[in-house]
């Protein structure tokens, strides 16, 4: 499985990857991007199986990234990993085509449950 993690914080990307490995995805190949533009290019080039993105990033935020991805016809499972999980954000994310939203702080168990519930991890 190839997983793209997009977040402007390198430290947060490392935390997310570590949590995913602890959730049972230790054999996955992880790709990293620091903004939506870079992430969109990686998706085009690498065709990941799953995308996890922060909401707030410079240059192209997570919602803009998701909208661009969906407008190109991609149906790759996409989830937000963000510190803001307001009902409005959840509605916007879902209407844009997000598969799930994981609010910080998170745990490996939370990741596993969310990914299983979304049907992207068995």
Automatic annotation (TrEMBL):
Q: Carries keyword Transcription?
A: no
Work out whether the entry's keyword set contains Oxidoreductase.
Answer: no
Could you tell me which residues carry 4-aspartylphosphate? 54
Q: Which GO terms describe its biological process?
A: phosphorelay signal transduction system
Q: Cite the Response regulatory domain residue spans from the record.
A: 2-119
Q: Which InterPro entries match?
A: CheY-like_superfamily, Sig_transdc_resp-reg_receiver, ST_Response_Regulator
- What SUPFAM superfamilies does this protein map onto? CheY-like
Q: Which PROSITE patterns match?
A: RESPONSE_REGULATORY
Instruction: Spell out the SMART domains in the cross-references.
Output: REC (SM00448)
Gene3D superfamilies recorded for this chain? Answer: 3.40.50.2300
- Which keywords are on file for this protein? Phosphoprotein
> Which PANTHER family has this protein been placed in?
TWO-COMPONENT RESPONSE REGULATOR, TWO-COMPONENT RESPONSE REGULATOR ARR22
Q: What protein name applies here?
A: Response regulator receiver protein
**Lineage of this protein's species?**
Bacteria, Bacillati, Actinomycetota, Acidimicrobiia, Acidimicrobiales
């Amino acid at each position: 499985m190839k997983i793209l993690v997009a977040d402007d914080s390198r430290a947060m990307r490392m935390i997310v990857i570590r949590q995913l490995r602890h959730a049972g995805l230790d054999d996955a190949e992880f790709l990293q991007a620091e903004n939506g533009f870079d992430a969109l290019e990686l998706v085009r080039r690498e065709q990941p199986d799953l995308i996890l993105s922060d909401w707030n990033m410079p240059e192209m935020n997570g919602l803009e990234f998701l909208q661009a991805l969906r407008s190109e016809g991609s149906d790759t499972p996409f989830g937000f990993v963000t510190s803001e999980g307001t009902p409005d954000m959840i509605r916007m994310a879902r209407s844009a085509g997000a598969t799930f939203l994981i609010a910080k702080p998170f745990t490996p168990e939370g990741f596993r449950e969310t990914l299983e519930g979304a049907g992207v991890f068995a």
